[in-house]
Design brief:
Elements lengths: L5 H15 L3 E4 L1 H6 L15 E5 L4 H10 L3 E2 L1 H7 L3 E6 L4 E7 L1 E3 L3 E3 L13 H9 L6 H13 L2 E2 L6 E2 H8 L3 H17 L7 H20 L4 H9 L9 H5 L1
Parallel strand pairs: 2-5, 8-9
Antiparallel strand pairs: 1-2, 3-4, 4-5, 6-7
Helix pairs in contact: 5-6, 6-9, 7-9, 8-9
């Protein structure tokens, strides 16, 4: 039976997936929470839903596992979109559970399952940060999650407890639209961090790491496809509208 406390419930799902050998990883705000030792009060926020990632090969086993854990599948949605996304409902707690298959498709498409082996519980930090930075219309929760990740984790060339800036830079070097949205959002984070009641040290870390990430992105050699799209610039919409993606 599902647990009322959402963090405990997410842990229950991950434990069951590990025991069953199903490659399921946490993403979204709960994954940010899982990677944080202590979130400063100004960055804390509520968590309403559980977001997960799995591989295309494990889609059926993921569905079977979640049904066994008490979740109700959205049969029509899953039949139509199951190759890239699965929806479930927790009837006991009136919560939604979202499973992204292979890629995270919203404003931009982010590959999220190619490096699942790097972390036993969540998608890697670089991919986790990208799922937040790819949002064109940032919400307050998105800003808090981005700031939390940058406050807790340095930007470097490796993974583990570090945000792999080189991995992010390689993706943006071949995708002008993703590059454009990250530029927009890193600038927003720089501006909006001043509105949060963080101490000076935390603000400094967030700004410094956002800047370090952008420097890595900018110095990565861009592909021919990127350069061609750059000539068009903002005259053409460079992102998808999530409602269109869901339809």
């Amino acid at each position: 039976m599902s647990k009322a406390e959402i963090v405990v419930e997410a842990e229950r799902i991950l434990d069951a997936a590990h025991e069953a050998g199903v490659p399921l990883r946490l993403m979204g705000g709960l994954a940010v929470y899982a990677h944080s030792e202590e979130i400063p009060e100004p960055l804390r926020r509520s968590y309403d839903d559980i977001d997960l990632a799995t591989t295309k090969k494990a889609g059926r086993r993921t569905s079977e596992l979640l049904v066994a854990l008490g979740y109700e599948p959205s049969k029509e949605f899953n039949a139509l979109h199951g190759a890239r996304r699965l929806l479930f409902r927790d009837p006991a707690n009136e919560r939604k559970l979202d499973v992204f298959v292979d890629s995270f498709v919203m404003c931009h498409t982010i590959p999220i399952t190619g490096r699942l082996e790097l972390d036993e519980r969540t998608i890697p930090l670089a991919e986790l940060l990208l799922t937040k930075l790819q949002v064109v219309e940032l919400t307050d929760k998105d800003v808090r999650d981005i700031a939390t990740l940058l406050n807790e984790h340095d930007v470097g060339s490796a993974d583990d407890n570090t945000i792999n800036g080189d991995f992010i830079a390689r993706l943006t070097a071949d995708d002008w639209g993703l590059w454009r949205t990250l530029k927009l959002n890193l600038e927003r984070v720089h501006d909006q961090i001043e509105t949060l009641s963080l101490d000076a040290a935390a603000k400094g870390r967030v700004v410094e790491r956002a800047h370090a990430l952008w420097e890595r992105i900018e110095r990565e050699p861009k592909s021919r496809k990127w350069r061609v799209r750059d000539r068009v610039g903002d005259r053409k919409r460079w992102y998808e509208v999530p409602d269109e993606v869901r339809r």
